[in-house]
Design the sequence.
């Protein structure tokens, strides 16, 4: 459905994409990973028809640059850095829904799912919202419209654990509908969400691999931790994950797709970890 | 509602909430208020008094500040939006490039023209109320001249924004353009060129091409074509074109210039990287 054919992008003398050839098919959930300057954002901008380039990018056989209306009507996009728009959230939703010929109500419904009260923020300038609220609004616009290609740049970076869980659930509901392309600096952030990993390095595809597709995106794990001693930094880290407890014993929930990220965080405190229990707790219905 | 109107509306609503717009409106509104406060309607120059006197002063101030205001706010907002990621997000939506670009330009025109016009209209309304009398012919011509001037510099602003890759470069370019056009006004560099016996045709062409010059000359010639402040180049041009001919030129040429510059900008925008 999406094809990159020998795509090269050069800024002045710097080659940011170097002869990239890739194909992406329906049902694929792809993690696009790589360090800063690897070419992830440039690749996405070429796919959105925002950059000129050598080679070809085709979406359903059409070049995005020459067929913006047709191609972009299929694409939901969540940028890493929200645009500093001064317009109220209600106007942004109205503008996006109008341009995309979508029903704003479905965007508002996704906002509600993500825990945002539309009525409360409708008149607030978008730029004044918190990072998490902006991210939720942009996710709602992307998921609330009919699109079979989802492109998300670090989409869950600013979301709290509960919102991440709902976000994963919403993604699970669309799993086989089309193509999902999620970029991240770190694979552990998105590993459980995807069935294919593309790693970029200095403008080239360094790795293109399929990954096991066993993690249920809607699952949650109950987690109990026992520590050898209380640690303030660890307590702060666990508070961000929504854990409760004090000092030596902690209890909380971890989203299934977040388990690798959680274990990554935990690995920094193995010296004070006395016990760990992770157990699949519930199956959610999308 | 088409994408063009949505884009124009978006730019208008974004601008109305920006700090620069408040300042911009305050400057032009403030000028009018100050002119009334200082009793300009009661003073007399070359036989002109009342609102005519106020309007001619207002228009002289506009020629100095309106172009730089329009240029800087346009390049700051358009190039700034691109840098801040607004273009990346908004142009990921299925909006046509022509609708986006021209919608932005028309929206921007509304926000740069309206405060200037409304300040003048408020002065006219107050004069009508105070029974000072409103010279409606003059008012209409000045409105037309302001439309032309604002549109031409807006076109330059859009061109510079499309060509420059950063808002810093765009601002520098805008300032330089304004400075060059200001220098080539009749009384500054053109006067020197005439005195140094440069070919008259070259001087006249430069004077004709400069929208600041055409605006200034057209604004003044309504009062007295013999006025010495017109300068040598304007005097020759007036002699050739006549008062009506020059007025028509001063109204149409900046519009063409602005549209041409904006079209060139659109060409660059369409062919280059969008964000």
Sequence:
């Amino acid at each position: 459905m999406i094809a990159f054919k020998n795509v090269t992008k050069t800024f002045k003398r710097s080659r940011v994409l170097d002869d990239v050839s890739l194909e992406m098919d329906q049902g694929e959930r792809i993690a696009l990973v790589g360090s800063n300057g690897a070419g992830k954002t440039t690749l996405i901008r070429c796919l959105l028809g925002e950059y000129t380039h050598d080679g070809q990018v085709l979406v359903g056989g059409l070049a995005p640059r020459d067929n913006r209306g047709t191609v972009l009507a299929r694409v939901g996009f969540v940028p890493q850095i929200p645009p500093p728009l001064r317009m109220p959230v209600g106007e942004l939703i109205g503008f996006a829904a109008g341009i995309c010929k979508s029903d704003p109500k479905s965007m508002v419904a996704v906002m509600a799912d993500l825990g945002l009260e539309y009525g409360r923020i409708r008149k607030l300038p978008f730029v004044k919202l918190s990072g998490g609220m902006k991210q939720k609004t942009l996710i709602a616009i992307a998921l609330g419209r009919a699109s079979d290609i989802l492109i998300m740049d670090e989409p869950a970076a600013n979301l709290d654990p509960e919102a991440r869980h709902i976000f994963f659930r919403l993604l699970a509901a669309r799993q086989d509908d089309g193509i999902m392309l999620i970029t991240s600096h770190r694979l552990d952030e998105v590993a459980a969400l995807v069935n294919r990993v593309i790693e970029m390095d200095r403008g080239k595809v360094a790795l293109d691999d399929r990954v096991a597709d066993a993690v249920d995106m809607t699952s949650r794990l109950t987690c109990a931790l026992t520590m050898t001693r209380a640690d303030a930094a660890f307590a702060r880290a666990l508070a961000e994950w929504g854990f409760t407890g004090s000092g030596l014993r902690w209890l909380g929930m971890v989203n299934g797709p977040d388990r690798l990220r959680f274990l990554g965080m935990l690995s920094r405190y193995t010296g004070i970890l006395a016990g760990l229990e992770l157990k699949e707790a519930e199956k959610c219905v999308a | 509602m088409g994408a063009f109107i949505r884009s124009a509306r978006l730019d208008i609503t974004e601008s109305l909430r920006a700090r620069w717009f408040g300042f911009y409106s305050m400057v032009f509104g403030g000028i009018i208020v100050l002119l009334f406060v200082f009793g300009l309607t009661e003073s007399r120059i070359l036989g002109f008094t009342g609102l005519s006197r106020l309007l001619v002063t207002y228009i002289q101030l506009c020629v100095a500040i309106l172009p730089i205001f329009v240029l800087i706010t346009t390049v700051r907002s358009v190039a700034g939006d691109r840098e801040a990621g607004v273009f990346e997000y908004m142009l990921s939506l299925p909006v046509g490039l022509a609708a986006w670009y021209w919608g932005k330009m028309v929206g921007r025109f509304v926000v740069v023209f309206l405060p200037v016009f409304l300040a003048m209209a408020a002065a006219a309304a107050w004069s009508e109320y105070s029974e000072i009398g409103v010279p409606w012919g003059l008012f209409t011509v000045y409105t037309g001249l302001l439309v032309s001037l604002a549109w031409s510099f807006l076109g330059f602003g859009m061109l510079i924004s499309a060509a420059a890759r950063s808002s810093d470069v765009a601002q520098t370019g805008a300032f330089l353009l304004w400075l060059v056009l200001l220098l080539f006004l009749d009384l500054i560099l053109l006067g020197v060129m005439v005195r140094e016996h440069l070919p008259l045709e070259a001087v006249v062409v430069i004077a004709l091409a400069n929208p600041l010059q055409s605006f200034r000359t057209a604004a003044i010639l309504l009062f007295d074509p013999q006025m010495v402040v017109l300068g040598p180049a304007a005097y020759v041009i007036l002699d050739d074109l006549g008062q009506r001919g020059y007025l028509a030129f001063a109204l149409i040429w900046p519009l063409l210039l602005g549209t041409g510059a904006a079209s060139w900008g659109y060409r660059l925008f369409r062919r280059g990287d969008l964000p």
